[in-house]
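Hi both,

Apologies for the delay on this - the queue was longer than expected. I finally got the magnesium ion-bound model through. Below you'll find the protein sequence and the ligand SMILES exactly as submitted, and right after that the structure tokens for the full complex including the ligand.
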Amino acid sequence: MSLPHLADPAGRYRTMRLIRSFEELALEWVRSGLVVGGTHPYSGQEAVAVGVCAALDPADQLTSTHRGHGHVLAKGADPGRLLAELLGRVGGLNGGRGGSMHAADFSLGILGANGIVGAGAPIAVGAAWAAQRRGEPTVVASFFGDGALNQGVLLESLNLASIWRAPVVFVCENNGYATTLPAASAVGGSACGRAAAFGIPAETVDGMDVEAVRAAAGRAVERARSGGGPSFLECLTYRFEAHHTMERRFRLSYRAAEEVASWRERDPLATDLPEAAAIDLEVAELLAAAAGFALASAEPDPATATDHLYASGLRPRSGAAL
Amino acid sequence: MTLLSYAKAMNRALADALEADPAVCVFGEDVGAGLAGLTPGLQQRFGAGRVVDVPLSEQAFTSAGIGAALNGMRPVIELQIPSLLFLVFEQLANQAHKFSLMTGGQARVPLTVVVPGSGSRSGWAGQHSDHPYGLFAHVGIKTLAPATPTDAYGLLSSAIRDDDPVVLFAPAGALGVREDVTAPLVPVPIGAARVHRAGSDVTVVAVGHLVHQALAVAEELAGEASVEVLDPRTLYPLDRAALVESLGRTGRLVVVDDSNRFAGFAAEVLAVAAEECRLLAPPRRVTRPDGAVLPFALALDRALQPDAEQLRDAIRAVLK
Ligand SMILES: Cc1ncc(C[n+]2csc(CCOP(=O)(O)OP(=O)(O)O)c2C)c(N)n1
Ligand SMILES: [Mg+2]
């Protein structure tokens, strides 16, 4: 059974709109100082998260990245609790402990966004291996950027997944840049070529087209679930905003204005769905309620700062003088 | 009056080193754009062949720096965030640090690793907020933590000229510090501490950005006690002579160190004091908790870092 909220085109559009509007609100909250530390906006890449998650079952899992809001929302996380996490409130997905780069919801199979590029892929492989061993039908989707293609650990993960025939779908969101570094000058060979070298079926898809992503992800998920091992998808996409909200402090010119404009013309949210306007309204209301929830959520008590440090309950010694 | 910022001072040290020695080069992510504040303008000035934008392959480009160092270069590696040091721990601890001894003195690895913005950056959460200088000091890699713009200039200059690997932590909490610089900027020797404020009742050893907090607290307590503020500047090798000399006069010790408590840098300072000095009161330290992971929420992040109140309490405790 696929994720109910992504079962039809309207649901997929609704979730993409939710992600876009969420990111717009987050940007506003960063600018007004409500969100400390900033965010990595996902705007422009919505079709990737939604297309991939549309091919997943509720019990399937994912690992995400520093640019993780889209993945987390697409898998079904509550936008109010994600906003509360961005604010560092107790009602946040991680109780305010993780923030934008670390949102997780294990009840939904979201094994966490991650602050270290490439770090999610081997975690996905191990999670998939365990599920397979335990006889569970779980498939794990692992999202990462083009920058991660150059992390040794990512290549090691492809190999492990291949020899273990782990039910993983590797999803490379190639948005053309790792911060200011163009993928064209950083990636020797090609993304799919790397996967193919490890014997993993790989395909490149239009990451601005949610249905194309869903179809390709569907094939990959089907292969994983039926014991066919890992697959690799390279989704060609673009981030519409800065790498990180902090970027506006710098005068950077690594992307030509015409390039940004030409990708914006291919906005994944462009649609001729007749119900789009009604959905937009619905999402606006949903997000307003989510914002209300987040803003009303309590600030954590400083006395709880080391809570959860150890799952076993070990309490660390304080840093203050005796 | 020209106010020199910490980031600008490091940028100038690097520019002067690139200018002075064609063997100096820089590897790092987004160094052309100068995103981390260390390299603005340098790629334009010295070319993309010397200030090299590298892919996100920290382990490879750090060890490539070692290889280049073995062949006569003096590479400076910029790591955007402190946790990347964990990724390259093998490269630094097990490769760079061991070449000289294990080749019977045939090889030297003049490699400098700089982290512009170590420790908490407020709102970057646990994976971006560590201060793992103790790990490198423990391994025996020359480890620096300048507190001021002139020391940042001076220590980075010395690090690049040094024939051994050096890791320099530029604490996020110090990057905004500005200083009225009147004298010419010069190298600062590795292994030399600095007394920022002389005092006779208690020695406060403060690391990195906490030097400024210690100076503020010392000033505040001036009516109560005469507080000496000692900045080791180099964490390894530690200037033990300066520490022993200071404690010989004050007999009381507080260490304030923004890193984890257990087996941390402050513990080493306390151990040296216990072994080599006669203290008048049990020493105290103010640190992060054992095994600290800084939570995202600002109030929680702050709660785990040494603060002025804890330092005041510690000073008063040793004065009792
Ligand atoms: C291992 C590692 N290196 C560097 C960084 C700093 N950093 C964070 S995001 C980023 C760029 C990532 O690019 P990409 O993987 O293409 O993802 P995108 O930001 O484009 O979504 C960098 C260099 C990091 N967090 N982890
Ligand atoms: Mg990218």
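Main takeaway for now: Chain A has a mean pLDDT of 97.

I'll put the files on the shared drive as well.

H.
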